[in-house]
Design brief:
alpha+beta, five-stranded mixed sheet, three-stranded antiparallel sheet, about 50% helix, about 10% strand
C-alpha cells in the first residue's frame, strides 16, 4: 500500500509512472487526514516559491472553485511557480483573471458566442467529422488516430470559427503542442531551461501575431467569423485590446484543441479496452451518448489540475489556509473520489449521477467551451461507430506532462 508521505507530486518521476500507480497514489492522498504541502518545481526564470497544497478530494476542489473571492485565479492558474510580469495572463487569458477584469472579458466573449454563431459551428462539426471519417474509411484500415482524426476535428472547427485559413493549421497545431508540452522532449528543446522558456514564448508569439494581424483586417472589413465579432464588440464602452484578443486566442486554441482532441483519443482507447461499454453505446447511441461523453471526461480528466491562491486567512472544509497559500486543484484525483463516485475505477457510460469536474469546478471559471467540446465528441463517435464500427485502438503513446493527460499517438485498425 502506498503511503501519503512517500508521494511527491513535484517529482517528474512520479508523472512518468503508469496511470494505475498514480491513481493509487492519489487514493492514498485522498485518504490522508491533512492537506500535504509540496515544494514547488524549480524554474530558472523565477525564484522558487513557498510551496503548494494539493487538493485531491472532490469536496475540496468544488469548494475552492466556488469561492473565487477567497481563492483567486489572478495570481496564476496554469503554473505553480509565480510567473514574472503578466506572463501568466499572456498564456492563460481570462482563466488567469479575477473580477472585474475576468467579468469584462467573459462578457465580451460570451456576447460574441451568439446562439446563431454557436448553431452554425455545431452544424459545421457534423460536416467536418463526416469528412474526416470518410478519409479514414477510404484508407488502408490503419493509421494514427490522433493525426488522422482526434487532432484535426477541434483544430479545424476552432480555426474556421476564428477565420484562420487552412494554410495556418499546421502552425497553430505545432504552437499548441509546444505550449502544452509539459516535460516532453519531443516538443521542447532538451537544452537549458532558458531555451525551453524561449520556445514557449515563441509559440505564444506565433499565435498572438497570427490573430492580431487577422484582427486588424477584421476591424477594417468585418466578416461573420468570431474574430470579427470579438474585435468589433463594444459592450457598455468595453472592447478587447489587441493584447486581450491575442491572449484569448492562445487560450481558445490551446484549451479547445488539446483537451477535446485528447478526450476523443482517450475515448477510442477506452471503447477498445472496454468492449462491453462500446456495445452498450451502440445498442442505444442517442440515448446513451450524453452519459458516455461525461464518463470519458470524468475517467480521463484531460486537464489534470489548475491552481488557486488564497486571498486571506480562511478555512477550506476545516483545513486552515493562510493568505498567499497556493492550492493546486487536482481534477484528476477529484474525479476518482470514492466518496462521490461508486466504483470510480470502472469506466461506466451509464453512470448517473456523474458530478465530475473535468470541465473545471463550479464558479466563474467553468469551461466556456464545454458545450462545443461535448458536441464534437458526440458527433465524432456517431460517425466512427456508424462508418467504421470495428475500429480499434492500439497502444497509446502518452505525453510526458503533469498538466495535460495527453496522447501523442494512437494507432488504429479497422
Amino acid at each position: 500500500m502506498l503511503k501519503a508521505e512517500d508521494i511527491n507530486l513535484t517529482d517528474w518521476d512520479f508523472w512518468r509512472r503508469p496511470h494505475d500507480y498514480r491513481h493509487e497514489a492519489f487514493k492514498a492522498l485522498r485518504g490522508h487526514g491533512e492537506l500535504i504541502r509540496y515544494d514547488e518545481p524549480e524554474v530558472v526564470i523565477v525564484e522558487q516559491g513557498p510551496g503548494y497544497y494539493a487538493l485531491t478530494r472532490h469536496a475540496d476542489v468544488v469548494e475552492a472553485s466556488r469561492r473565487p473571492q477567497d481563492f483567486c485565479s489572478g495570481r496564476g492558474t496554469i503554473s505553480i511557480p509565480d510567473m514574472p510580469g503578466d506572463l501568466h495572463e499572456y498564456f492563460g487569458s481570462m482563466i488567469n483573471m479575477d473580477d472585474p477584469r475576468h467579468a469584462k472579458i467573459r462578457r465580451i466573449v460570451s456576447r460574441a458566442f451568439s446562439p446563431r454563431m454557436i448553431q452554425r459551428f455545431e452544424d459545421k462539426v457534423e460536416a467536418v467529422a463526416a469528412e474526416l471519417v470518410d478519409g479514414i474509411a477510404a484508407g488502408r484500415g490503419t493509421g494514427d488516430f490522433v493525426q488522422d482524426v482526434a487532432a484535426r476535428l477541434p483544430l479545424k472547427i476552432i480555426c474556421d470559427m476564428m477565420g484562420i485559413g487552412e494554410e495556418h493549421y499546421g502552425t497553430v497545431l505545432d504552437a499548441t503542442n509546444v505550449i502544452l508540452a509539459g516535460n516532453d522532449a519531443e516538443f521542447l528543446p532538451t537544452g537549458s531551461a532558458e531555451e525551453m522558456a524561449m520556445a514557449l514564448l515563441g509559440a505564444g508569439e506565433t499565435l498572438k501575431g497570427l490573430v492580431e494581424d487577422l484582427g486588424r483586417r477584421r476591424r477594417a472589413e468585418p466578416t461573420d467569423d468570431l474574430t470579427s465579432a470579438l474585435v468589433n464588440a463594444n459592450i457598455d464602452g468595453e472592447s478587447l485590446t489587441d493584447q486581450e484578443l491575442g491572449s484569448f486566442f492562445i487560450l481558445l486554441v490551446v484549451a479547445g484543441n488539446e483537451t477535446t482532441r485528447n478526450a476523443i483519443a482517450h475515448g477510442l482507447d477506452l471503447f477498445t479496452r472496454h468492449p462491453e461499454q462500446r456495445a452498450l453505446l451502440v445498442e442505444d447511441f442517442d440515448g446513451r451518448i450524453a452519459g458516455a461523453v461525461e464518463e470519458i471526461v470524468r475517467y480521463v480528466s484531460p486537464v489534470i489540475w489548475m491552481r488557486r491562491t488564497a486571498t486571506r486567512d480562511t478555512t477550506l472544509n476545516e483545513h486552515e489556509i493562510k493568505e498567499g497559500d497556493k492550492l493546486v486543484l487536482y481534477y484528476w484525483s477529484a474525479n476518482r473520489d470514492e466518496s462521490v463516485f461508486t466504483d470510480p475505477e470502472k469506466f461506466d457510460i451509464l453512470r448517473d449521477p456523474n458530478p465530475h469536474v473535468g470541465f473545471g469546478g463550479p464558479g466563474p471559471h467553468f469551461c466556456l467551451g464545454a458545450h462545443l467540446a461535448r458536441r464534437e465528441i458526440t458527433v465524432m463517435f456517431r460517425e466512427l461507430l456508424r462508418r467504421v464500427p470495428d475500429i480499434r485502438a492500439g497502444e497509446a503513446e502518452r505525453l510526458e506532462s503533469n498538466f495535460i493527460n495527453g496522447i501523442k499517438r494512437l494507432p488504429y485498425t479497422f
